[in-house]
Amino acid sequence: MREAQRWDEDLGLTVDETAFYDTLEVNDSAVMILGDYSLKVIARDLVKATRAN
User: Max CA-CA distance within the chain?
Assistant: First the structure.
C-alpha cells in the first residue's frame, strides 16, 4: 500500500490518474512514441472525462 502511494507521489498523479497511467504504460510502443509527459496528460484527461460523465 505504501509503495503504491509513493508511486502516485513520484508520478505527481492522483490514485485515479495513476490507474489510467499504469494501463497506458503497459504498452511499450505508447511509452516510446508519446513519452512520460504525454501519458500523464492523457491519464489526467481520462479521469476528468470519466468524472464528467
Answer: 31
Strand residue runs (E) in the chain: none
Pair 18, 27: CB distance under 8 Å = no
Residue 19: left if φ>0, alpha if ψ -120 to 50, beta else—which one? alpha
- As given in the structure block, the three cell numbers for residue 45 are 484527461
Instruction: State if pTM tops 0.85.
Output: no
pLDDT in tens, 1-51: 455 556 667 788 888 888 888 888 888 888 888 888 999 999 999 999 999
Asked whether 53 and 45 are in contact (CB, 8 A), the reply is: no
